């Protein structure tokens, strides 16, 4: 069985599987073909892939001959059409949002797995690309805040005077938020954070940040530990609390998301206008609607001296480790669908079922099936 690894499109520096992961695939009795230049963004040469035992090939040859194609960003419909009809496609396709692509895959009776669908269960944790990439993004968001501020993050006591530490406010203390908090703390900032989940308070305190309490959050045990949509009244209370804290902050990092929903709007325009000139907002939720009213996905805008970074896919800015983590997630997942060097799909496994967009003309993931009904 041939596994193809493709070069990602322009703007994406990561690669789905680095040579270290290829070695493992080869040890499972598979053949691996890699598109020339696939590792370039992560500073890995074709030669390094070749020394592991992989073959370098042009894109078209991979698309038309591979039994399984692994990538991060999804392929276009025309490229999917070039794949063998029995081939399996694995990518992060946003299957619940990019419905035209999902429908195309279904109609074409393709077998496709979308990595963001990996169920968020304990057993699936080692395959969860959303978590690993959130770790990278949270870290990078804190660095971006530190490098964009016109002042220091840490406190300094020097002969040239004393500098007070920067004050950072992190909104949403999930995987990305906790990493942003930890990184900002390591850089010496004073960090405040809040989240609607009660469990987040303990985690925030344990890494040395101060927790901002907003009473009355709704929690749902059935949501698997994730946030649920809050009442209008609660969101308004949050907005008022953020408004108060934002005026003292040098940097705000927002990461608040609700699975499958538009991100909650928490930093209002009046709040941005009340912030100190020179301060920054890093909105990690920009591509899912934004936590800040003024953020624009993939753009930096400036209002009254406050810069708002609407960042999307910060993970691509740390391609070596991001690819390493992505590859590890991929391998852990591939272990479930490759047996004795061949593809083996066991839909009784909840992770295989939950991650599969479609197979043989049928939507397999219950989440995909539900959205199409
Ligand atoms: P996420 O990306 O969906 O959301 C980010 C954070 O935003 C969450 O902490 C959420 O509570 C918070 N949020 C949502 N609405 C908010 C609001 N109005 N105000 C403030 N904060 C708000 O979530 P995530 O970071 O991927 O994960 C959240 C939790 O789930 C974490 O505790 C994580 O450890 C856990 N998790 C478990 C698994 C697993 O078991 N496989 C996988 C991933 C995450």
UniProtKB/TrEMBL annotation:
Location of the Alanine dehydrogenase/pyridine nucleotide transhydrogenase NAD(H)-binding domain: 146-310
Keyword Transport: no
Pfam families referenced in this protein's UniProt entry, alphabetically: AlaDh_PNT_C, AlaDh_PNT_N
Gene3D superfamilies: NAD(P)-binding Rossmann-like Domain
Keyword NAD belongs to the record: yes
Catalytic activity: NAD(+) + NADPH + H(+)(in) = NADH + NADP(+) + H(+)(out)
Taxonomic superkingdom: Bacteria
Domain Alanine dehydrogenase/pyridine nucleotide transhydrogenase N-terminal, chain residue ranges per copy: 4-137
UniProt function note: The transhydrogenation between NADH and NADP is coupled to respiration and ATP hydrolysis and functions as a proton pump across the membrane.
Homology family: Belongs to the AlaDH/PNT family.
Protein name as it appears in the record: proton-translocating NAD(P)(+) transhydrogenase
High-level lineage: Bacteria, Pseudomonadati, Bacteroidota, Cytophagia, Cytophagales
């Amino acid at each position: 069985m041939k596994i193809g690894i493709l070069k990602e499109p322009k703007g994406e520096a990561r690669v789905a599987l680095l040579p270290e992961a290829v070695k493992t695939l080869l040890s499972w009795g598979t053949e691996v073909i890699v598109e020339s230049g696939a590792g370039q963004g992560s500073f890995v040469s074709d030669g390094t892939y070749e020394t592991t035992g992989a073959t370098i090939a042009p894109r078209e040859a991979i698309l038309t001959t591979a039994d399984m194609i692994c990538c991060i960003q999804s392929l276009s419909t025309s490229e999917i059409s070039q794949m063998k009809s029995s081939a399996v496609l694995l990518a992060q396709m946003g299957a619940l949002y990019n419905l035209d692509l999902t429908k195309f895959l279904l109609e074409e009776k393709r077998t496709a797995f979308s990595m963001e669908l990996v169920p968020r269960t304990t057993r699936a944790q080692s395959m969860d690309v959303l978590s690993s990439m959130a770790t990278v993004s949270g870290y990078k968001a804190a660095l971006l805040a530190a490098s964009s501020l016109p002042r220091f993050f840490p406190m300094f006591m020097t002969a040239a005077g004393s500098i007070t530490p920067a004050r950072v406010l992190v909104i949403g203390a999930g995987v990305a938020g906790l990493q942003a908090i930890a990184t900002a703390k390591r850089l010496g900032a004073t960090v405040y954070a809040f989240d609607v989940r009660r469990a987040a308070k303990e985690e925030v305190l344990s890494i040395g940040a101060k927790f901002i309490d907003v009473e009355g959050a709704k929690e749902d045990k059935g949501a698997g530990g994730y946030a649920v949509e809050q009442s209008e009244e609660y969101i308004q209370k949050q907005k008022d609390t953020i408004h108060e804290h934002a005026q003292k902050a040098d940097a705000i990092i927002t990461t608040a998301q609700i699975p499958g929903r538009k991100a909650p709007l928490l930093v209002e325009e009046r709040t941005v206008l009340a912030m100190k000139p020179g301060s920054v907002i890093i909105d990690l939720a920009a591509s899912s609607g934004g936590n800040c009213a003024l953020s624009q996905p993939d753009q930096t805008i400036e209002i009254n001296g406050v810069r708002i970074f609407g960042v999307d896919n910060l993970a691509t800015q740390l391609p070596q480790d991001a690819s390493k983590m992505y590859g590890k997630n991929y391998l852990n997942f591939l272990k479930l669908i490759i047996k004795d060097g061949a593809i083996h799909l066991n839909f009784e496994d909840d992770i295989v079922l939950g991650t599969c967009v479609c197979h043989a003309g049928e939507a397999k993931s219950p989440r995909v099936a539900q959205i199409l009904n």
